[in-house]
Structure to design on (251 residues):
């Protein structure tokens, strides 16, 4: 009889141990699922950023092709921005398909007025000819703070800039001259026309200088002196992926 009680007691202990182990395994499983879910979200966010960079590059290629055929860059007809130009319609006006980034938002375009002219086709006037220009008035700064009281880099003779609003769906650069872009994560909204939104700077910005554009469209074959070539720049090189917030889609 005592042996039977002992066996029953041992069975209960066994059950308790099994329950504890099951609880631990379940807890580990939940933790693992959470970790994998977070990892998947991070990978998905990275993939979208990679796609957005490709879309920005495709827009740049489209513009270079347009410049090659016309001799200058395309200009949006209605310019609300002090002589520089937003890109919500320009692709369509120029016969180039409008391009959205991987979050479903149209890219933003700024072009130097010295090398831009309206119209869908035909050669540009000689005073807008890219190969004839020695510089542009467009400047770009990479700011270290929201007021841009200090900046990391400054570039002159910018030909054009393409911007994706990034994961937070809000264009945050300052689109005037000088154009201001910011170090990743800085709380800033330099572009009120795109709506007010908070959050760290996460725009994907790429710019092409006049000299780079000259080389791309073949000006060097028309001139005796070869313009100085700088390496292409994409900003920022890295985004704070873990801080990516849910995207609220708008049109
Ligand atoms: Ca943004």
């Amino acid at each position: 009889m005592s042996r039977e009680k002992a066996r029953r007691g041992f069975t209960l202990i066994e059950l308790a141990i099994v329950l504890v182990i099951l609880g631990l395994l379940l807890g580990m499983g939940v933790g693992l699922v959470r970790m994998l879910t977070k990892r998947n979200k991070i990978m998905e966010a990275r993939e979208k950023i990679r796609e957005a960079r490709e879309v920005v590059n495709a827009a740049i290629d489209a513009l270079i092709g347009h410049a090659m055929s016309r001799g200058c860059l395309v200009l949006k007809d209605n310019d609300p921005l002090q002589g520089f130009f937003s890109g919500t319609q320009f692709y369509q006006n120029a016969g180039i398909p409008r391009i959205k980034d991987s979050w479903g938002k149209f890219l933003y375009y700024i072009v130097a007025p010295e090398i831009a002219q309206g119209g869908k086709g035909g050669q540009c006037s000689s005073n807008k000819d890219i190969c004839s220009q020695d510089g542009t008035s467009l400047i770009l700064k990479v700011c270290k703070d929201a007021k841009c009281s200090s900046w990391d880099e400054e570039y002159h003779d910018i030909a054009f800039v393409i911007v994706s609003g990034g994961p937070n769906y809000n264009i945050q650069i300052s689109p005037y001259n000088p154009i201001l872009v910011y170090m990743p994560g800085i709380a800033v909204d330099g572009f009120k026309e795109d709506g007010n939104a908070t959050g760290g700077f996460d725009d994907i910005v790429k710019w092409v200088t006049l000299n780079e554009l000259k080389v791309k469209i073949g000006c060097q074959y028309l001139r005796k002196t070869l313009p100085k070539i700088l390496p292409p720049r994409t900003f920022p090189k890295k985004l704070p992926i873990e801080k990516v917030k849910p995207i609220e889609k708008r049109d």
Observations:
- Residues 36-243 form one domain.
- The first strand starts at residue 73 and ends at 74.
